[in-house]
Specification:
Two copies of one chain form a homodimer.
Chain A: E1 18-30, E2 34-41, E3 44-51, H1 57-65, E4 71-80, E5 93-104, H2 121-126, H3 128-131, H4 135-157, E6 161-162, E7 180-182, E8 190-192, H5 198-206, E9 211-219, E10 231-240, H6 244-263, E11 272-274, H7 275-282, E12 296-297, H8 299-305, H9 310-313, E13 317-323, H10 332-343, E14 353-357, E15 363-364, H11 373-383, E16 390-396, H12 398-415, E17 426-430, E18 435-438, E19 443-446, H13 459-464, H14 467-471, E20 477-482, E21 485-492, H15 497-506, H16 511-524, E22 532-538, H17 539-546, H18 577-582, E23 585-587, H19 590-594
Parallel strand pairs in A: 3-5, 6-9, 11-17
Antiparallel strand pairs in A: 1-2, 1-4, 2-3, 4-5, 7-8, 9-10, 10-22, 12-13, 13-16, 14-15, 14-16, 17-20, 18-19, 20-21, 21-22
């Protein structure tokens, strides 16, 4: 037997009991005549005590021989501590050890296994088993486990059935790039790993399951950026005989449930904003509502003032935000830095105009030669600007400028500490465009995905409208945003074969391509497909956002690095010649690799 | 709005209410002046009524236009039925329809969507969305969903943490064949899909998680036999600081829990049998204990009788079973058929000897010229044979003969109807051999897997014994068997680097191969790996066995056929040239395929 108790459960009421504990040596303190070991397991830490008077020489030697992270088993008596520790639940007792067995030794870990570690990212990933011993990392994964439990509890309680959809499916060129899996039994053919169970969950609706969910791994072979993983997890759902309203209510309920049960936070009803409004007010389809600093457009006032400042007067959009009470903090140097920031290629603005309403009543702005104080004061009124406030203004082409200003607003939010920890601001963004025109490839892309339905009142326009009309189609598509992170999104789907065929055509599929790739779904729509819609939440993202963290990697037990590599197991790796042969494949880099 | 109620919830107390229902047309009956439609959704069936007197002409026409599996929405009043149907919960009411909307039409399904269908396997798989509408198939998947819920409830309640392990891992030649996934970002390198999360769950033990579980998809690229799927689901578990006893008790508890909550069956404590005994008594490591018919070996009595029947006297094993009360049923012709059955290449016996103890007291046997009635009666006594019983005897090489007799015993069990529906007989088979000698390849294979620990008392033998000794090593390895099906298995693992290295060596790994494939695990064992062990249950199999069914395919939403093909989506399929290029691959069958 390895234990009668775990290391987190002994209390003052257990004094006098003989117990067996097993765990890891967190640390040891040796005072010569006395010695203590902190013994750690998943459940807590219990202090062990050895002393020269009552412990045998062999026992003391054994205790002195163990090092950090050794695994030991001890037997002993629970006694009351002379100096109690009120920081841990077991702090009133310690174990007077009678017997100690070393279950496994440990080398000295390459980094400290403490809440704060001195290990760099690469080292932590290579020795992930040591990193996972650290309380904050373990707590992240325990949180993830509880989030899955509460999600399942809520959805099961609402009549959702969890159905496992297959992982070996069919490669389709639409959307992101697939990971593919060569089939040995079907020479020259490949499976694909699912980017999402989209078509299968729709098939389940045709099958009459009505309320489906799955917490499911999905795969995308994209170039990896920070915080993007080749495999990730979704809370995937689909419902039949529902409107957008039903779906929003159900998943607002889920979100409230997990915040309440796991964070003790009662979220008020979620506001809703349509896509066009989000773009106009925040320049982004996932606004962070923890702070205001909304866009105010200046085109009208600039036109009315007509001062000959061509940059503004000829711009499709002149838009600004107002930072409150910052003028004393924003020196010329700091503003220059901010200007450099917006001019970086990632943002791409040509310049930044500021208007400072100084505390002393003066107004400072680099465009003072075009606009006098009264002009600028009139601008300020549009923002409700007061002394100490500063306007930041960008101008240019509409969509680009909004995007740039959206980035600047977030940067200012960060700089001014407006994104408060523990503050959660959910938002439904609704009424997304159905199609997005891509200038480069001269074709439409599906804004959500090719199965999304136009709004009922736009169906006729979609079936019979001209090319320009297609750009104005709006969909019953929606995203849940929390604190500027997209937690999930979904849509009401097309359930009619003709409309789905039309959508494929708009997206550039030939009828043959549509049939080859999605024939099964088009076929299914002919056998009594109910109206349906759904949503998917990014599970990793939800974990991170609920804990106020930005990286999903810390909520994944074994994440991959930016080249898709698992540093611990060292995968991917070369395969054997026989494997190539069995799969009817040859490598075009193999010879080089072997030289 | 599509519904105020579902089709399973209206009762006599709802009479008078105006309701909206949506669903599928199960069937329609038209009496001319009156018409009924059975409207079906996931929750049940509700009868709709239309009549010439009170329904408008348009409404009647609309009702007459709909066919089987059309999707409609109706509004109407709940009324009491004149002729009640006590077979369905809604049978006391019907809806007097005021409004009918067709939500989607349906072609005539290619097979009947009823409990018993006329659709063949291929057709059912191609139109899986229609097959899944059938109550028995849907009930299977709903059962599966509930089984997952109860499994998670039990394990979470016992402090297990669910952790998702990665799906893109490393290919290893040990065990079954891997599915591999070419990595675009790492030219010439491949991921593998996990055959099980074995090494990751052991890493989680090294990480101090102590109690891990996961309901997880696993993948094996094996030649498919009936009832084997390339992707399947496991209940995967691992525990630290435990002995075999702890694991057996925990998972016996899980099994009892799911039988009780889902089937209302209280299983008594599970018997245990060691591997050697199972082979001796049943000729198989997964005996079906729903019936007896245990082996009795005849070598001793045959030696003592010494009658010159060389076939028996020179055989390594002579073994028989006793079928009770069957002599009148087993004519010479039927026994000949049984003899042909054991001589089939799949079984491989050379012949079958019977001894019939007829009701009239006579004894019939083809070996009567060697053995007189007294001799045979002495044999019968070993079985407790009575009048009407029949011995069936095989002889030959020990292991082969046991296996043949094991098959014959099961065949007799089937023939005599001894495997009763609703009878569940679980059994722990324990003390499996550690290693299995393969004559063909002249090497050891791991009986369970390469991470299994020998029994504590065999460690010394393993480290220092000779080649022959290795064959007698026993492991703390165990299988849970129910009704002759292996539900799952596991073992106590090695947690010591030296012992694990020795095991790899015995299994034919060079130190370099062991390091390349499992270096991370060997490394982890050096940083305080706790004693640990685990188990995995086949989730699909457990679903099937709990429902008295033999095929796992009926419990998988979208199964693949025997060539690994998804008939509905038609996968696997060819990929594009660009995909090959991006993955640094060429096909060796591609040109032929394109000709």
């Amino acid at each position: 037997m390895y234990r009668t108790h775990n290391c987190g459960e002994l209390r003052i009421g257990d004094v006098g009991k003989t117990v067996t504990l097993s765990g890891w040596v967190q640390k040891a303190r040796d005072k010569g005549f006395m010695m203590w070991i902190d013994l750690r397991d998943r459940f807590g830490i219990t202090q062990l005590i050895f002393d020269e008077n009552s412990s045998s020489k062999e026992l003391l030697e054994a205790a002195r021989s163990v090092g950090r992270e050794w695994v030991i088993r001890i037997e002993g008596e629970v006694i009351e501590r002379s100096s109690k520790n009120d920081k841990i639940p077991t702090g009133e007792v310690e174990i007077k050890v009678a017997k100690l067995d070393v279950l496994n030794a440990s080398k000295v870990p390459p980094f400290t296994v403490e809440d704060d570690t001195d290990g760099g990212d690469d080292l932590r990933m290579k020795y992930r088993y040591l990193d996972l011993r650290r309380t904050p990392v373990r707590e992240n994964l325990f949180f993830r486990s509880r989030l899955a439990i509460e999600t399942r509890k809520y959805l099961s309680g609402n009549d959702f059935i969890e159905v496992e959809t297959p992982n070996l499916i069919k490669s389709t060129p639409e959307g992101a790039r697939d990971f593919v899996v060569p089939s040995r039994l079907n020479p020259g053919q490949f499976y694909a790993l699912p980017q999402s169970p989209q078509t299968f969950k729709q098939i389940l609706m045709v099958a009459g399951f009505e309320k489906y969910f799955q917490i499911v791994k999905c795969f995308r072979d994209e170039d990896l950026r920070a915080d993007r993983q080749p495999e990730f997890t979704q809370i995937d759902c689909e419902m039949s005989f529902v409107t957008q309203e039903d779906i929003l209510n159900t998943f607002e309920g889920l979100t409230k449930h997990v915040f309440k049960t796991l964070k003790g936070i009662e979220l008020p009803d979620f506001p809703r904003m349509n896509y066009d409004e989000a773009m106009k007010r925040y320049g982004i389809d996932k606004p962070d509502l923890r702070f205001g600093m909304e866009f105010v457009e200046l085109n009208d006032i600039i036109k009315s003032q007509s001062k000959g400042f061509g940059v503004f007067e000829s711009a499709e959009l002149v838009v600004g935000i107002c930072a409150k009470g910052v003028t004393s903090d924003y020196s010329r140097k700091k503003i220059d830095k901010l200007t450099d920031w917006v001019k970086r290629p990632q943002i791409g603005a040509k310049g930044l105009v500021y208007v400072k309403f100084e505390e002393d009543g003066s107004i400072k702005s680099p465009i003072g030669k075009f606009y006098n104080d009264d002009d600028l004061r009139a601008w300020g009124e549009l923002y409700g600007a007061e002394k100490g406030d500063m306007l930041l203004i960008l101008s240019g082409e509409l969509d680009k400028t909004r995007k740039q200003m959206g980035e600047l607003r977030l940067e200012m939010g960060r700089n001014l500490g407006l994104m408060k920890e523990g503050d959660f601001k959910p938002l439904w963004v609704i009424d997304f465009p159905l199609l997005e025109w891509d200038e480069e490839s001269e074709r439409f892309h599906a804004m959500h995905h090719p199965f999304t339905s136009p709004k009922k009142e736009h169906v006729e326009m979609m079936l019979n409208g001209d090319h320009e009309t297609m750009k104005s189609l709006r969909a019953d598509a929606y995203d849940l945003v929390i604190n500027g992170s997209e937690i999930g999104g979904g849509s009401i789907r097309i359930h009619d074969r003709a409309l789905q065929s039309k959508n494929f055509k708009l997206l550039g599929f030939t009828p043959e391509e549509a049939e080859a790739q999605f024939g099964f779904l088009l076929g299914a729509f002919e056998y009594g497909a109910p109206p349906h819609g759904g949503i998917a939440f990014g599970f990793d993202r939800l974990c991170a956002v609920m804990n106020g963290q930005s990286s999903i990697r810390d909520f994944i037990a074994f994440p991959k690095n930016n080249t898709g590599r698992d540093m611990m197991i060292d995968a991917p790796s070369p395969i054997h010649d026989e494997q190539y042969e069995e799969l009817y494949l040859e490598s075009t880099v193999k010879d080089e690799a072997e030289v």
